Amino acid sequence: MRAAKLHGAGNDFLLFDGHDASLQERLPGVVARLCHRRLGIGADGVLLVVPYGSTEARVLYWNSDGSPAAFCANGTRCAARFAARRWGWESMVLHTPFAPVPARAAAKEVELGLPAPLEVGAWHDLEVGSETVRGRRLVLGVPHLVVPVDWADFWIRPLDPLAPGLRAHPDLPPGGANVTFVRSQVGVLEARSFERGIEAETLSCGSGDVAAALVAVAEGWLPPPVEVRTASGRTLRVAPDGKAPACSSRLTGPAEWVADLEIAAELLA
Q1: Model pTM?
Q2: Which CATH architecture has domain 119-247?
Q3: Could you report the per-residue pLDDT of 24-36, keeping only the tens digit for each?
Q4: What are the residue numbers of the active site?
């Protein structure tokens, strides 16, 4: 079984060519093994890119624990880079369970055109232990909780136990949400992400960064387009296409090729 490893702002994935029709049945059962960072290859998730037509593909995504998800923005950017390199596509439409997503790949820079969030919630106070934070929930394919903070030690503060407590907070709808902590600085929005299905901090969550940027514009923290600095040190750009936060947007940033892989049969057994 062959795969490629890519990362979008540090959010890393294994990508498979859907020309092999057997992969849709084979992959779900081995995702957790493939993504294990000691016993497998290591990744935040797996994508199967199934081409059809001249420049369209269906994109299926699984989190590192093997659970499927309707959308992963960084993963979809990596899928666009994968299609560009494998099949020579520059402009394409990637059909995710969330929505058809137009994409453009120019070298390692990939832009996605994203629809408006399916849901935009109000601000809520949420208690975790002795700590209370404010959060706003948006559903951009998958649910995100945007939590503004003013931590002086933003990049080094442990997210445990606050992030896991928010991710599965009883005041959220069933299934909880990805959590994006944000700090507004001059000209940039800093973001740290704790993701469902990985149950840990990731170096970036693309759709979470979009949700955070839309909230930042709506609240007047920053003007559009918003530069989002991720924990990887890479920056993503979010450009709202209307009145935030209930509007479509464009997400642009690097999707970087790490390796081409031949996966050993014993890992899949």
Answers
A1: 0.97
A2: Roll (3.10)
A3: 999 999 999 999 9
A4: 72, 205
